[in-house]
Design brief:
With 76 residues, the protein is mainly α. It has one domain (6-66). It is 75% helix and 0% strand. It is built from two helices and no strands. It has helices spanning 6-32, 37-66. The longest helix has 30 residues, at 37-66. Belongs to the V-ATPase e1/e2 subunit family. Pfam families: ATP_synt_H. The chain crosses the membrane at residues 12-33, 45-64. It is found in: Membrane.
């Protein structure tokens, strides 16, 4: 094993950047007055949970395709 694949690192960083941007949007909405402090806190929790869930879904899909256990059978 040569370590963590670069695709996995790149994808994880992309989800981390997305989380930071979305939390920034929630904080900006709070700063402008569109959200109250409580609503911004709820928004932060929703963003964090959603990004973690999407990242886990992407990670599972990526891992299943990395080293497949079942090989295709070609007849011909």
């Amino acid at each position: 094993m040569s370590g963590i694949p670069s695709t996995l690192v790149t994808g994880s960083i992309a989800y981390l950047v997305a989380a930071v941007v979305l939390i920034g949007i929630v904080q900006a909405a709070r700063g402008v007055g569109k959200l109250s402090k409580d609503d911004a806190g709820t928004g932060n929790v929703v963003v964090i949970i959603a990004v973690i869930a999407m990242w886990l879904f992407w990670l599972c899909a990526w891992m299943h395709q990395w080293h497949p256990l079942i090989q295709p059978i070609y007849e011909g």
